[in-house]
Amino acid sequence: MTTFEQVLIGGRWCASLDAHGSFRAEDPSRAEAIGPAFPISGIADIEASMRAAIDAADALSATPPERIADFLDAYAAAIDADADRLVALAHAETALPAEPRLRAVELPRTSHQLRLAAKDVRDYAWTDPVIDTQGGLRAHRAPLNKPVLVFGPNNFPFAFNAIAGSDFASAIAARNPVIAKAHPSHPETSQRLAQLAHDALLKTGLPAAAVQMLYHFDNALGLAWAGDVRLGAIGFTGSRAGGLALKAAADKAGVPIYAELSSVNPVFLLPGALAERGDALAQEFFASCTMGSGQFCTNPGIVIVPSGAHGDAFLAAATRLFAEAEPKVLFSRGVQQNLVHAVNDLRTAGAQRLTGGDAGEGYRFQPTLLSVSGDAFMAQAQALQTEAFGPVSLIVHAPNTSAMQKIAASFEGNLTGTIYRASDGSDDDAWHALAPTLRTKVGRLIANKMPTGVAVSAAMNHGGPYPSTSHSGFTSVGMPASIRRFTMLQSYDNVPEHLLPTELRNRNPGGVQRLIDGTWTNNDIA
Amino acid sequence: MTTFEQVLIGGRWCASLDAHGSFRAEDPSRAEAIGPAFPISGIADIEASMRAAIDAADALSATPPERIADFLDAYAAAIDADADRLVALAHAETALPAEPRLRAVELPRTSHQLRLAAKDVRDYAWTDPVIDTQGGLRAHRAPLNKPVLVFGPNNFPFAFNAIAGSDFASAIAARNPVIAKAHPSHPETSQRLAQLAHDALLKTGLPAAAVQMLYHFDNALGLAWAGDVRLGAIGFTGSRAGGLALKAAADKAGVPIYAELSSVNPVFLLPGALAERGDALAQEFFASCTMGSGQFCTNPGIVIVPSGAHGDAFLAAATRLFAEAEPKVLFSRGVQQNLVHAVNDLRTAGAQRLTGGDAGEGYRFQPTLLSVSGDAFMAQAQALQTEAFGPVSLIVHAPNTSAMQKIAASFEGNLTGTIYRASDGSDDDAWHALAPTLRTKVGRLIANKMPTGVAVSAAMNHGGPYPSTSHSGFTSVGMPASIRRFTMLQSYDNVPEHLLPTELRNRNPGGVQRLIDGTWTNNDIA
Q1: Which of A276, B56, B372, B416 has a Cα at 20 to 30 A from B312?
Q2: Which CATH number goes with the domain that contains B237?
Q3: Are B333 and B32 in contact (CB under 8 A)?
Q4: For residues B290 and B304, what is the distance between their CA atoms, to the nearest angstrom?
Q5: Terminus-to-terminus CA distance in chain A, angstroms?
Q6: Domain annotation covers residue A102
């Protein structure tokens, strides 16, 4: 009998109940399988994890915040302590650079995010208590008391991992059990993280089934699961096609889904900025578009360049940088194939090749620049917004600010939109003409900085209008806002004080900001 | 040529562009048509109102908060000043009592709600500014910059009217244009409100197309409209069937919809409370279930009564009150027919008739009590949760607290759940056994009070888990939370201060609560 790696169900590591076959990770730089065989779960694993999570939900809802925070801190510490091993695993499975990306940036970001969640748990920061003493009404945000299913993406083996990233930390902070669907492109990294999470759970006394993980299942099972009314919510980061299919299933069942779907992250270069520092901008653009092999949700996929000598010089410099660069390793054959298709689709829609455009050895792809006139873009605006996930960007030529404004108006919802402006204020008229239109199309409006690099900050918005995400009111990065996705609003009407939750009682549990009779305060109620 | 009443499109009163026929209001007490003929709009009216709203969106987004607040205040004052006429119209169209309901309760509630919206606009209360000075990130909530379509219900001609209620006030407060779909059961009341709103718009200088109104259109057109990606959001209060159809269309297009759908509002009577004041509870229950002819979203549709002498006495008293009451006038033939069907469905599922059960003259219906054993309820829990919109309630007998807990666990999502407990604390063990289960099923947990009566308060939650509403994270009553439904999250990254919105600049525009570098404050940034 073949044995596969164990899944984490019901608080213990166990053999898959009904593996439908198996899969292995690959070294993307060689396109060769590595590591052990992981099971592809069937309905029995899904049902067992759902039942265990449902059972764990009540206990977890009633767990004191301090204990939840202790778990998050313990897990963060375990990740930091295990950094060597985690980085080695993730590097092998993703080909992302061990330094600085994995070790110096992504791993510390991941543990930092867990610690921020712990802090917000201790401060009750996500609970938004509102008290009306005259009306006898007290409201706050509370756990969903149901399992949260998290689908992790391929492109952040730590920071967006379904078992360690922002969706995970947010759902646990709100005291909901999490069932993590690891991404099959980095199963051993996910396994190691799940081991650390599980150990931290046991150490801090949380219900053991509060955290579960499956590696993989068929799409059809995933869609059926997304429509399971027993779910409290779904967090998803991934492709638009996959996300929209899950969203349709979840919507039908009334299950809230927070899906981050796709974005081309338009970057507008205003004439003054180009005149001031066109060469430096070409460097910034090249670095942003090719870092991590361009496999970021916030990759600059479209750059709008004004006509004229400065625009031409920028383009020449950028084309040279792209042309001279080595092919970049992508995560998987699927990513490579999708990128080939996307580039073909863009060319079919009218984009011209400036450099690159071809797949290479292993799962490599050449850094690629395409270009199109403003008029041609407007004529095929929908098709030319196809996301090319990888080191690819489309240059759109714009004769003037008015054309830029029209191009901005044609965009679908995006995570980010960037405007580069001159430091002397000479672009400010153009800014005022362009920014209001771009503003309504994007979750984060950026000045003079490339969109890659999503800071972990309470003022971050890693979200945006549909179809960049499923709902423009939410962010997947930046606590406490990201935690609120996994909560429900609950009001207490005429309920005696001793029967209320801690943060709604007269005595402030300690520094909690509350809206009491129209005034924000962290005082007790007399 | 037949002339119908005018619609409000593009900032002016005009004939419907493509009326598909007409309808008239009815006096529900006589089942006779009254008042003028109102047009049933076609696609041309819809398209014209959409274009006008889209044109108005930019100007409205950029309107200073003070001017928005002035409009809301002016509209509120106009409603108060026109109370005699409004109450006469609404009474004629709905048969709701002029006093106290319409004049003393609902009309003042409506103008009060508009004034609260004005206050929250002046205070920037819904914008939630978050500033990270080190990270150069500043985030807040902003207008959707797209039209909001509001569907009003039949049961509140003022307070939930699509042109005057909480959805309207909330969407306008967030500086979004509103297209109101009036409810066809009170067109003349809606027309008068729209006249007052339009006058107030002109007086305060808001874009005239910021507020538009149609009276009626076919369901198929409504569904197509709900799926129009040009919409910013939809607010809906009404039937579950209608709301779910709109939700499916909106979900598919990625249009956020906030739908309040249905609720049976379970009321649990604990033994100590019944022993203490069973007769008074029967009175309270009867009053709550028959007030407004029982046509409330928060009507107590299911009452769980413990076995024993006190439970029997309560039931006898309640049955007597229901039996002795006059038939109640419903809003329309449709409401009457739906109620006949719902009562039949409940009886088919096993409910026994205690009293009432029949339709009467005009659109009347007898106050009706049904009953079922706890076991029979559990066997048909889904069918016995059918909402009977009107003066009807189902008594469920429960032998003990454990049975009550199981019944609570079987409930779908509801707006409210109520527990009556003894004032001496003798029911507290039962409370602790029952409340955690009921809590997760309802938006508002109530002690010792009937669920009808939704206070306008920042700590109110008029929302609840699916399928009582479309999303358990939102409320349609209670500002500023209700306003946030009609906003998008926007972050500014590295944007110079002079290019930021007012409430994100260093200088606090005046008393605005902001989260700055992890600390809540209304100070300026130095």
Answers
A1: B416
A2: 3.40.605.10
A3: no
A4: 18
A5: 68
A6: yes
Are both A247 and A108 inside the same structural domain?
A: yes
Co-location of A271 and A257 in the same domain:
no
Distance (Å) from the alpha carbon of A218 to chain B's nearest alpha carbon:
23
Does B474 reach chain A within 8 Å, measured CB to CB?
A: yes
Nearest CA in chain B to A471: B256
**Which residues of chain A make contact with B252, given a CB cutoff of 8 A?**
248, 251
pLDDT exceeds 90 at position B83: yes
pTM beyond 0.90, yes or no:
yes
Which residue's structure tokens are 């014209």? B48
Residue A224 has a pLDDT of 98
B182 and B294 share a domain? no
Q: Are strands B328-329 and A487-493 parallel, antiparallel or unpaired?
A: unpaired
* B447 SS3 class: strand
Burial class (CB in 10 A: 0-12, 13-18, 19+), A309: exposed
> Does residue B2 carry a pLDDT above 70?
no
The CATH number of whichever domain residue B318 belongs to comes to: 3.40.309.10
Distance from the A338 Cα atom to the nearest Cα atom in chain B, whole angstroms: 24
Judge whether A453 is closer than 8 Å to chain B, CB to CB: no
Residue B485: closest C-alpha in chain A = A473
Domain check: are A379 and A506 in the same one?
no
User: Which residues make beta-bridge pairs with A33?
Assistant: A26
Indicate the residue of A130, A255, A474 with minimum beta-carbon distance to B458: A130
- Same domain for A280 and A179, yes or no, is no
The whole domain housing B62 covers: 49-127+138-261+475-483
Q: How many domains does chain A have?
A: 2
CB distance from A496 to chain B under 8 Å? yes
Indicate if B144 and B112 belong to the same structural domain: yes
Query: CB contact, 8 Å: B247 with chain A?
Result: yes
What's the complex ipTM?
A: 0.98
CB contact (8 A) between residue B499 and residue A428: yes
Same domain, A272 and A246: no
Residue B381 placed within a domain: yes
Tell whether A280 and A214 lie within a shared domain.
no
Residue A224, domain member (yes or no): yes
Question: What are the structure tokens assigned to B464, written together?
Answer: 């609840």
Helical ranges in A7-124 per DSSP H: 43-61, 65-81, 83-94, 107-122
* CA B92/CA B102 separation, integer angstroms: 11
- Is position B41 within any domain? no
What is the distance between the alpha carbons of residues B387 and B468, in angstroms, rounded to a whole number? 11
Residues 6+ apart with CB under 8 A from B517: B131, B132, B133, B134
Which residues neighbour A271 within 8 Å (Cβ) at sequence distance 6 or greater? Answer: A306, A308, A310, A311, A427, A430
Rounded distance, CA B435 to CA B429, Å?
10
